[in-house]
Amino acid sequence: MATEVHREVHEQRESARPPLIGPGHNFATVTDKISALALSRPTSRRWWLGFGFSFALVMLLLLAISHLLVRGVGIWGINVPVAWGFAIVNFVWWIGIGHAGTLISAILLLLHQQWRTSINRFAEAMTLFAVACAGLFPLLHMGRPWYGYWLVPYPNTMQLWPQFRSPLVWDVFAVTTYLLVSLMFWYVGLVPDMATLRDRSTHRMGRIVYGVLAMGWRGSARHWQRYEAAYTLLAGLAAPLVVSVHTVVSFDFAVAILPGWHSTVFPPYFVAGAIFSGFAMVLTLVIPIRALYGLHDFITARHLQNMGKILLATGLMVAYGYLMEAFAAVYSGNPYERYVQVNRMIGPYALMYWALIACNIVTPQLLWFRAVRASPVALFGVAMVVNVGMWLERYVIVVVSLHRDYLPSSWGMYSGTIWDWATFLGTIGLFLSLVFLFIRFMPVISIFEMRTLLPEAKVKEELP
Amino acid sequence: MPQVFHRSFNTLSRVSVFGSLLFLGLAAWAASVYVRSSYATNRDIARDQPIPFSHEHHVTGLGIDCRYCHDSAEKSRYAGMPATKTCMNCHQQIWTGSPVLAPLRASYQNDVPIPWVRVHRLADFAYFDHSAHVNKGVGCVTCHGPVDRMPLTWQHGTLLMSWCLDCHRQPQMFLRPREQVFNMEWQPPPDQEQQGRQLVEEYGVRQLIHCSTCHR
Question: Which ipTM was obtained for this model?
C-alpha cells in the first residue's frame, strides 16, 4: 500500500517535470534515429573535418613521444626542484575527467535517476578515453616506458616487489581497476545495442563486426534477466570506484609531507573536483554533438539543466575545499604551510591561482540563473571555463608546492616546454579522435534504455 | 536475411574466450621460463676461446693455484686475467710447438694481448668488487662452481639479481673460513648456519641488500 502511494506521488512529480524524451517518438523511431548515426553512409564531411583535425594532433603526440623516447625526459621542463610537471598535472586532469562516466552510469543508476539514460553511454565512453589518455602520462614520465610492467607485482628474477607503502603503487591498482571495470560496464551495456546494429546493418562487414561484438545476443527473456543481474552487479562494483580512484590519486600528494599537499581535505576535495571536471567535459562534448546530430529529442533541455546543477553543486564543494586549504594553512600556525598559501596568492604563480579561482569558483556561480542553465551556449561556455580551471588547479597544486620547498637554496621556477605542450595537445587529439570514432561506429545513446522511457514501455507495469 | 554466422561459432566463441585467457597464462609462463633459461642467462654454456684453455688440466692435473693466474683476486675489483707472459713462464719450455698454442706465441711475439672471451659478464649497472667477496670468506666455488673440473670454462651461476640476493640476504649460509676460500674441495660443515654466523660476526659481514649497494 505504502509503496503504491509512494509510486503515485513519484509519478505525479515525474509528470510535472518536462519529459526526458521528445514528443512523438515510439520504439521504431528511437531505434531508427540512434542506429542511423552509426549505420548511415556516406560519412559526413563535417565528421571527416573534425576527425582529421584530431588525428593530426595524434600525429603530433606520436612525434612528441618519439622525441621523448630518443632524447629522454630532459626535453620536458621538469628538473629539480619541480620534478613533477605537466605529466602529473595532465594525468590528474584526465583522470578527473574520467570520473563523470562511472558517476552517471553507476551511482545514478543505483539511485534510479532516469535522466542518466541518454548520456550514460556517451559519458562511459568518454571515461574510457580519458583514462587511456591519463594512463599515458605516468608511463611516459618514467622515461623508460618499456619497464612499465615493473609496477605490477609478479615473481621476478630481481626478487623485488613494488614499494607497497607508496601511493604511486596504489595508483597503479586504482587506475587499472577503474579502467577494467569501466570497460566491462561500458561493454556489457553495449551488448543489446550491438545486436540491434547487427540486425539493422545492411553491410556484410557491419553485420560480422557488430555480430561478434553482440556475442550472440537474441534478446530472449533469459538474456535480459542475466543482463540485468550483470549490469546491476557491475554498477555496484563501479560505484565505490568513483570515490576510491581520485582518493588514491590525491594520496600521491597528501601522503607526501610537502606543505600544501599534506592535508586531510585532499581526498574529498579531489573527488568533488573530479566529478566537477567530468561533468564539465560531458557538457563540452554533449552540447555540440546534440546540435550537430539533432539529438534534441533525446538529450533534452532537462538533461542539460540537471548537468548544470551538478556542475554548480560540485563547484561549490571544490570552492569549500579551496577555502579549507587556506583556513588550515592559517589555523595550523605552521609557517611553511602558511608560506605556501601566501606564495600561491602573491608568488610568481599568483596569476594562475587567481585565474583558477575565477574559473572554478566565480564562473560556476552563473549557474544559479535558470537562463544560463537553459541556454546550451552559455552552459558550453561555463563548461569550457571549468575545464581550463581544473587544469590550472592541478598546475597550481603541483608546481607551487614543489618550486619552493623548505630549503631556499634549492628554489627554482618551472614552465612547460614546447614538448610538454605538444604531448598535452596530442592527448587532447587522441581523446577527440576516439570520441569521433565512437560517434561514427557505435550507438552514442543507449537505444534499448531510451525505449524504456517511452510511454509505450510503461503500459505493462500499469496492468493489474 | 541469411545467417551471418554458422552454428559452430557458438563453440568457437566460447573456445576463443577461454582460450585467450589460457594463452595469456601460457605466454606469461613461457616468458618467466625464458628469462631464467640458460639461453637468456648464458649459464652452463662454454664459450669459444682463442685457445681452448682447460682449467681441469691446469688445476686438477697440475695443481696450479687460482691466484697464480688470477693474481688480483684478493686485491682488486677484478679477479684479473693472466698476462701472456704468465702463460709463457711454462709454455716457453713445454708444448712449444703445439698448434693449439699458436695464438699464445703470436701474442708473445707481437706484444698483443690474447682476446679472451669474458665468461662472467656482469651488467654494467651493477657495482661489483671481487676482493671484497674473497676477503669476507666467499669461496671461488660458491660463485664460479667446480672450475677445477671444467675442461672449457662456463658460467656456473645465473648472474640474475635473485642469484646475488640469495647470498646477500643470508650470508651465513654460504661463507667459509678465509683460509678455505681457494680450496676447491671444501664442503660446508653440518652446522654451517652456526659457524656461518660466527664468520659473519668475525669478518664484519653486513646484510648488504640496499639498492645502492650494487646500483651506485
Answer: 0.78
